[in-house]
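Customer escalation, tier 2.

The customer says the design service returned an amino acid string that "doesn't look like it belongs to this structure." They asked us to rerun it and document both sides in this ticket. The original structure tokens are below, unchanged.
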């Protein structure tokens, strides 16, 4: 079964392996298969589910609602997000303005068929809206009981500090940040993680397997496997392209004997690795088939020894991105519509 961790400086626990439906629900797989994977997640002990209104332009939230139908609401932790364009993508269907946040939470609750979400997240930082306006809107949502906790995604260390201070003034707290983090993408370690530890903010990390590259199935000098994420634009092919360099794929192959030494599969090693960071509350995983989750959840509770962690660092030396300046290049400087 899956272990639990506290989310930030709160009394709220989440499953350290959390099910995310970014590129699967209403996109990569048919609804029946998506529902089956959610049921497999529940059977494996995962009770925390992460989605966003922008996934499949709101349809992913509806699929998740269908999959969770009949489950005890108090036994689930449901997360969603707001920021990216949705619906007809009009001038106010985007960003973190008071209007879009209010419309966003109401739409998400309707689609998810719940009275509240456990965690409502700013999907990016909005440079075009005053931060005070955004945080006041989140404070109102918490007071209205529509969200129990507030988090963000891909904010810089400075943005976390400013948001945390405003939240405290308004009577609530930021408990989480959702960045990309994996053995290959470690940019949060330099500034974001230290600031978060100081502020009482946890990381909920996405792409712990580097879009599947850390599974080891992509081989240097070989065509990408048919049916893999790298061949499907709807499954995030554009995100994986940056990792499909021979020097990266060669380095990843060097992890195979290390995984075998630890008695783990490559996906288990990748997920266990991010969970060694105590500032990480949860690793987000997806699945297109139920059996994938049976392997994934075995990473929960795994302790990687110091010599193994050092060997992983050495195997990926020169190909892992550790530049903290890259945290400043994620949120768009202007809205997309």
């Amino acid at each position: 079964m899956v272990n639990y961790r506290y989310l930030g400086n709160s009394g709220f626990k989440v499953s350290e392996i959390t099910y995310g439906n970014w590129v699967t629900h209403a996109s990569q797989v048919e609804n029946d298969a998506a529902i089956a994977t959610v049921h497999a997640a529940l059977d494996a002990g995962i009770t925390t589910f992460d989605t966003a209104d922008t996934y499949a332009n709101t349809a992913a939230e509806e699929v998740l609602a269908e999959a969770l139908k009949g489950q005890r609401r108090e036994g689930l932790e449901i997360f969603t997000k707001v920021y990216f364009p949705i619906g007809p993508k009009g001038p106010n269907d985007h960003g973190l303005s008071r209007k879009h946040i209010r419309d966003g939470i109401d739409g998400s609750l309707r689609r998810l068929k719940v009275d509240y979400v456990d965690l409502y997240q700013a999907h990016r930082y909005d440079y075009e809206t005053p931060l005070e306006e955004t945080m006041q809107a989140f404070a109102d949502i918490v007071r209205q009981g529509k969200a129990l906790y507030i988090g963000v995604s891909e904010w810089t260390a400075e943005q976390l500090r400013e948001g945390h201070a405003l939240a405290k003034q308004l009577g609530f707290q930021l408990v989480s940040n959702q960045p990309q983090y994996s053995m290959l993408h470690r940019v949060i370690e330099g500034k974001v993680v230290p600031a978060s530890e100081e502020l009482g903010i946890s990381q909920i990390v996405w792409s712990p397997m580097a879009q599947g590259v850390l599974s080891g199935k992509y081989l240097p000098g070989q065509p990408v496997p048919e049916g893999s994420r790298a061949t499907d634009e709807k499954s995030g092919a554009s995100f994986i392209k940056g990792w499909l360099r021979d020097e990266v794929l060669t380095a990843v192959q060097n992890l195979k004997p290390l995984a075998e030494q630890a008695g783990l599969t490559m996906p288990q090693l990748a997920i266990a690795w991010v969970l060694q960071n105590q500032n990480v509350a949860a690793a987000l995983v997806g699945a297109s088939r139920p059996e994938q989750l049976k392997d994934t959840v075995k990473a929960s509770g795994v302790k990687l020894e110091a010599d193994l962690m050092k060997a992983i660092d050495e195997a990926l030396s020169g190909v892992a991105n550790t530049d903290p300046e890259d945290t400043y290049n994620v949120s768009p400087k202007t809205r997309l519509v």
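Tier 2 assessment: The sequence is consistent with the input. Residues 98-112 form the longest helix (15 residues). The two ends are 43 Å apart (CA to CA). Sent an explanation to the customer and offered a walkthrough call.
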